[in-house]
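Ticket #4471: structure output looks truncated?

Reporter: J.K.
Steps to reproduce: submitted the chain below (70 residues) through the standard prediction queue, then opened the result file.
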Amino acid sequence: MSKQFTAIIKKEDDWWIGWIEEVPGVNCQEKTKEELLESLKITLKEALEFNRQEALSAAGSDFNEEPIAV
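Returned output as attached by the reporter:
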């Protein structure tokens, strides 16, 4: 299952910079728009996996996972 996120991007001087709107701290800077979008995708995946592992570790061994739609 694939989720969609929103990339906020802009060209500033010789660089493309961008942020993922829904996840604080996910931001990148690259020389081309294509490189920026790929870096944002990689960084977002890493951040989501890190957050997931951190949550699982904090929960310990007796927990349930429940999907939540907003």
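Triage note (M.O.): checked the attachment and the full token line is present. The chain has one domain: 7-56.
Status: closed, working as intended.
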